[in-house]
Design goal:
single chain, 419 residues, alpha/beta, six-stranded mixed beta sheet, 13 helices
């Protein structure tokens, strides 16, 4: 029996899903982030990866043919010649690269994806100033480094993760303008997502009971994995990921790129996944409410009624899409005494941001929105779904599978089949 393992490193934790040839889920495992320990992300990620592998039932491990990992987009770290991180990683929403934008604007094409304070390239230029940079040999995305821990080969990435590094996903090469930055470390070799890279390290296979010929494949990003899991496949179909953040992906025959609004397109076969990611989302809701409160208070809300509260829900200043402004202030006032009214205002305001995002994608040339699948924890909230239907004016469904790890497992299966 050939099985496939997808591992998702998302904003709230790590997850693993094992599927069979029929894409049926045989096992699901989870590792939530422990916030006090999150200051040392490298140790946290490594512990999560191997804990997930150990949590998979041993009888399934013996049958796993391929493993693929996704990570959060634009989460990067620098490694030395042995692949060991030389400093703390910069996470997906870290905007310290904003000071590098003037330098990037002098070499990159106008409105390019890298012209964002949170792009991988902006982060890399910022890290170049650190004393630890002299020890660095490799730029690695989160998924690249985690894959390296399993297969042992440095300097390999995929074109989903490499997009915000400046890699040209249309021509499938690094552009000439990127060379003008004279970056003195090795940028990764870029492969199509799901491409088999190498077999699992022999010691890991032996210690954990995996097949000796189990291969580790090139990865993807968490939001693309959620799209792959959803069941969406036609132009005009979209996936909204309602996790800690709000991520929109619209399948389009036209590529749309505009850094002014934080919009970029990923290659998906012959089509394009165009969209963006906002810092609003579930993390804001969990700041004010427990999961139990979110569930009970949502039942008190009349989703057909428009909330008069107009918020821009952020935990700190700065958003990426549909307003790309690292200084954008949160707007969370006035706050009513009634908690259900406050929650209603938050849910409605996030729905407005989502609708504005899709409107913007269509205005810039993407296919017209026809239906929206929903992934992430927010997909389970029917009140929020009904509020979103009112704004989006198209059918809104929970994704067929809401776990990004499931989409990553599909990628592992397809990668081995296509090899």
């Amino acid at each position: 029996m050939d099985l496939y393992l997808g591992i998702d490193f998302g904003t709230s934790g790590a997850r693993g899903v094992v599927i069979d040839k029929g894409a049926t889920i045989l096992a699901e495992v989870r590792y939530p982030w422990e916030i006090p320990a999150a200051s040392d992300w490298v140790t946290c990620w490594q512990r999560a990866l191997f804990t997930l592998l150990e949590l998979i039932p041993r009888e399934l491990r013996r049958e796993i043919e391929a493993i693929t990992i996704n990570g959060t987009s634009s989460t990067i770290l620098l490694g030395d010649a042995a692949g060991q991180p030389v400093d703390a990683p910069l996470l997906y929403n870290d905007a310290r690269g904003s000071g590098m934008l003037a330098q990037l604007q002098s070499v990159a094409p106008a409105n390019h994806t890298v012209l964002s304070s949170t792009s991988s390239l902006a982060k890399l230029l910022w890290m170049r100033q650190l004393p630890s940079f002299k020890e660095a040999r490799y730029l690695m995305h989160q998924a690249d480094w985690l894959g390296f821990l399993l297969h042992g080969h440095l300097g390999i990435s995929d074109y989903h993760n490499a997009l915000k590094l400046g890699y040209d996903v249309e021509e499938l090469k690094y552009p000439e303008w990127l060379e003008n930055l004279q970056i003195p470390i090795q940028l990764p070799q870029v492969l199509p997502p799901g491409t088999p890279i190498a077999e699992l390290r022999p010691e890991i296979a032996a210690n954990l009971g995996f097949r000796r010929d189990c291969v580790v494949c090139a990865g993807t990003t968490d939001s693309i994995a959620a799209f792959l899991a959803s069941g969406a496949k036609f132009p005009g179909e979209a996936v909204t990921s309602l996790g800690s953040t709000l991520v929109l992906k619209l399948l389009s025959r036209t590529r749309v790129e505009d850094a002014r609004y934080g919009i970029y397109s990923h290659r998906l076969g012959d089509l394009w996944l165009t969209g963006g990611a906002s810092n609003t989302g579930g993390a804001v809701l969990r700041h004010f409410f427990t999961d139990e409160e979110l569930e009970s208070l949502s039942r008190e809300i009349d989703a057909a009624k428009v909330s008069e509260l107009d918020y821009y829900p952020l935990l700190k200043a700065g958003d990426r899409f549909p307003i790309n402004d690292p200084q954008l202030p949160p707007r969370l006032e006035p706050r009513p005494e009634n908690p259900s009214k406050f929650l209603h205002g938050l849910l409605e305001s996030i729905a407005r941001i989502e609708a504005r995002g899709y409107e913007l994608l269509q205005q810039l040339g993407a296919d017209n929105l026809s239906r929206v699948y929903t992934a992430g924890g927010g997909a389970a909230n029917p009140t929020w779904t009904n509020i979103r239907r009112r704004y989006l004016k198209v059918p809104v469904f929970a994704s067929k599978h809401t776990e990004a790890a499931y989409g990553t497992a599909l990628l592992a299966m397809q990668g081995v089949r296509n090899d």
